[in-house]
Amino acid sequence: NAGVMQNPRHLVRRRGQEARLRCSPMKGHSHVYWYRQLPEEGLKFMVYLQKENIIDESGMPKERFSAEFPKEGPSILRIQQVVRGDSAAYFCASSPRVGSGRHTIYFGEGSWLTVV
Amino acid sequence: AQKITQTQPGMFVQEKEAVTLDCTYDTSDPSYGLFWYKQPSSGEMIFLIYQGSYDQQNATEGRYSLNFQKARKSANLVISASQLGDSAMYFCAMMSPGANSKLTFGKGITLSVRP
Fold first, then answer.
1. B45 vs A33: CB contact, 8 Å cut-off?
2. How far apart are CA A15 and CA A82, in angstroms?
């Protein structure tokens, strides 16, 4: 799972600032997922993207959060005007395909956002 | 809707002994996959084992095995010969291929291995 690269690993932002989290999927993977882990909780799905397309954003907060996966470059999770409740670990995962029960999803090491 | 339940309090096991971590699930999908992940204190999510709903045999990966009881909707993780490095949070998760393959996670179980 070391193949999914996330940066920064740790990010501190003041309330009202913007946070940008980046994710490069494993080589050959074109499906990217973002999950959020609040303290003492399991991971919660946020958004699923393929290159240049948002496929499922049912877990994304309606405001301040956005995600993209451009044709070139990493996937970006952007949080505008951060608040203390945004403090969490944000995990990116990638997969080679969907629709198969046997494939495995690989996670990055996570990005820890702290809002002060 | 899918749901994963992990209700055990913090678990303790003596080094070299086996331990079972419980997971029950709920879904109306006929086809699904069950995963276990380990999250050590360093924070990364490490894939341990996968079980497909139509797999005839219980999955095994080294010291990890999955006790899959489909009728009871349970997918317990068994760790044999526990090691100190097994101390971590363990998460059970479910995926339905038809749901864009997104994972639904339980709240996790803390395992501490005693020397």
1. no
2. 5
